Amino acid sequence: MYGRQLMSLISLAAISCLSVPASPFNLLARSRDGQSPHTSGELLQQARQLTDIRSGDVPSFRLTARIETFDEKGTKREGTFTLLWNSPTMWREEIAFPGSSQVRLARINKLLISRNPSTPSEEVYSVVNLMAFPSLLQMNVRDQLQKLRETTKDGSRERRVDITIGSQLWKKVYFDGSALVPNRIEYKGAADGMRNAYSNFRTPAPAVFDVEFQFGDYMEFHALQFPRTLRRLDSHVLKVQVQVQEWIAATYGESDFVPPDDSHWIRWCPQMEPPRLRTQLIMINPVFPPQLRTGGPPSRVVIYGIIGTDGEWHNVEPVKSAGAMVDSFWMGLMRKQRFTPAQCGETPVESETMIEFDYR
Fold first, then answer.
1. Is residue 4 part of a domain?
2. pLDDT (tens digit, 9 = 90+) per residue, 267-307?
3. How many domains does the chain have?
4. Which pLDDT band, with edges at 50, 70 and 90, does 53 fall under?
5. Which has the closest alpha carbon to 193: 134, 140, 146, 235?
6. In a domain, 146, yes or no
7. Residue at 3 is within a domain
């Protein structure tokens, strides 16, 4: 039996922070220097500059939001998001749900992390990634930009940037009319860097997952823009929704950035280069556990780990389990992977990561 790997991962610790404005307004296609973008590359670059509220170009602020997450059965969990932003090297982020919370606090060259309970949370990881959506506009070395497309439907104009890997279209970024900020980002298949999809060798095609991010009701704060509403959908099903409640200027003192007593830390920097995969998951004649060998029901596993400065996995543990044998199978394959570790300048650093495996 063979599976097919479609993609890799996203680093949690590499993600920076965000902000939010106070009233919607007409976002015309003008950059911060007044120039209009003419190519797909210019449009993506300006969109990231305008929405990167964790850059060094914004004064200190407080951002609060309401969170809704939905599991496979559609059960909703409500929580809150709070970001105290002083500078790119001094900020505090807290995500809280009933019975669980995570605090991340940046102090110069360290990222201090406190979790209650101590096990990492899939829903927290999803919220962190959604709130760091400007990173999705950054190009990877293998990405190939296609010509900027423009269409008009029912009197509405839309622009689209297509991104391919070789001949495979895997990412689309959409803009309303002449707006400089995206209203949605689509990933075709599992190639969004968040999932590893595998399928039973008897099925004619691998499992495919369409991931879509939606952004609406943009706001302005000191020449930066951020959506009031952010959503993530998997296969057209809503999984995470964030509603920004407040984005205002704030002044902080040292006491606002005291880490919780149970915090642990990893070395960190605002412009950290994420880890790069050197070896894929080895899927040559793997010994599948019985549940997968016999073509049992689909299984989904989410695994947390730290990619160390040695480029290997550490602290690997299941966050969502499909049973001990299935979990152990995927974790065993992961431990055979090797990476170029994340870098702060020329210094290797650790990075927290969560990977999802779907087997169908």
1. no
2. 999 989 989 888 876 666 677 787 777 666 677 899 999 99
3. 1
4. very high
5. 140
6. yes
7. no
